[in-house]
């Protein structure tokens, strides 16, 4: 293997690693909820807390920081007393939300079929276990 091909493989591996990290970040349970909640316009922290069921304050704060770091959320601080902070989708996040909305719509449309497939699979798995035991 030449030095040039090793460099190309290293760059390709680095790119795949970064891409995987971004996909993992935006596909996480909390990220999807936060992004979808913010898709309706600027939203405050407490509104996000209510809009994303089950999220802890710590997880919400971490999720917001990560999404802001990745350029998906814009954080605006207003100099009022007390300070007012709003989060809004960036242009790239708005594009991402279109894909997330399509994915969640697909999941809702096929929810029953997926549940039936799971039941059939689990039932077949149980039958095989009983025959073997």
UniProtKB/TrEMBL annotation:
Keywords: DNA-binding, Transcription, Transcription regulation. PANTHER family: TRANSCRIPTIONAL REGULATOR, MARR FAMILY, TRANSCRIPTIONAL REGULATORY PROTEIN. It comes from the Bacteria. One of its GO terms (molecular function) is DNA binding. Pfam families: HxlR. This is Helix-turn-helix transcriptional regulator. Residues 17-115 form the HTH hxlR-type domain. SUPFAM superfamilies: Winged helix' DNA-binding domain (SSF46785). InterPro entries: HTH_HxlR, WH-like_DNA-bd_sf, WH_DNA-bd_sf.
């Amino acid at each position: 293997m030449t030095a040039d091909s090793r460099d190309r493989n290293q760059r390709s591996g680095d790119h795949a690693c970064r891409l995987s990290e971004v996909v993992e970040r935006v596909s996480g349970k909390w990220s999807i909820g936060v992004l979808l909640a913010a898709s309706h316009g600027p939203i405050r922290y407490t509104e996000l807390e209510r809009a994303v069921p089950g999220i802890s304050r710590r997880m919400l704060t971490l999720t917001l920081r990560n999404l802001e770091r990745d350029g998906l959320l814009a954080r605006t601080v207003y100099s009022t007393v007390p300070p007012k902070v709003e989060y809004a989708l960036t242009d790239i996040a708005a594009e991402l939300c279109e894909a997330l909305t399509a994915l969640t719509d697909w999941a809702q449309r096929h929810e029953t079929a997926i549940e039936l497939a799971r039941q059939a699979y689990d039932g077949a798995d149980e039958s095989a276990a009983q025959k073997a035991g």
